[in-house]
Q: What sequence folds into this?
């Protein structure tokens, strides 16, 4: 049996890496790929794959928007840099069959594709716990520790921080939040100053350590 897979991720280099890894598997065929929500929905509905590997964070709604707009048929497996509880729960509620992070190996990803195609739900133990807690009524998020630098951010600055940590450009953040690029630059400057980070790469690492993404 051959599993037909469609890749959705807004980073072309990452798509290329996943395609190269999965192409070594004799029973997996890449039938299409897309880097935007609109192209993903059109491509998936046209290609009719068995499995969609779906990035969670993209401009214009991300993986949740793709899940809501594709026709019935393919099984979706979320593939993300984020292991935040709110991201896991959002895409599972939108219809994804599993959730793995981008630290997964090529062999593990191929196995996850086969398993979701066969009807299994695929999660790491930590992520599965988030889902179970959500559906049993328990809080999926631990009580956050005191963090003066994080607490100093305004709600808008926190929104900008989240999008920066997800790899959005200033233009994409402006479109997402319906503000000007200049305003985004001002917020980003304030975030760097308040968090005492020297550049965007350092800020992204700082945010990921706090599971902000």
A:
């Amino acid at each position: 049996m051959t599993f037909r897979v469609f890749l959705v991720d807004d980073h072309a280099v990452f798509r290329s890496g996943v395609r190269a890894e999965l192409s070594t598997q004799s029973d997996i065929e890449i039938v299409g790929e897309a880097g935007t929500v609109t192209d993903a929905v059109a491509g998936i509905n046209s290609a009719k794959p068995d499995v969609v590997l779906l990035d969670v964070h993209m401009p214009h709604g991300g993986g949740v928007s793709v899940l809501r707009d594709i026709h019935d048929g393919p099984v979706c497996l979320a593939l993300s840099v984020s292991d935040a509880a709110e991201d896991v729960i959002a895409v599972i509620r939108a219809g994804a069959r599993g959730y793995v992070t981008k630290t997964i190996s090529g062999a593990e990803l191929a196995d996850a594709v086969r398993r979701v195609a066969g009807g299994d739900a695929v999660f790491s133990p930590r992520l599965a716990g988030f889902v179970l807690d959500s559906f049993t009524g328990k809080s999926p998020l631990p009580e956050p520790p005191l963090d003066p630098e994080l607490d100093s951010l305004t709600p808008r600055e926190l929104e900008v921080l989240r999008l920066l940590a997800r790899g959005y450009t200033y233009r994409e953040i402006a479109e997402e939040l319906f503000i000007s690029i200049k305003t985004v630059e001002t917020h980003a400057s304030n975030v760097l100053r308040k968090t005492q980070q020297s550049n965007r790469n350092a800020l992204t690492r700082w945010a990921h350590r706090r599971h902000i993404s």
About this structure: The first strand starts at residue 3 and ends at 8.
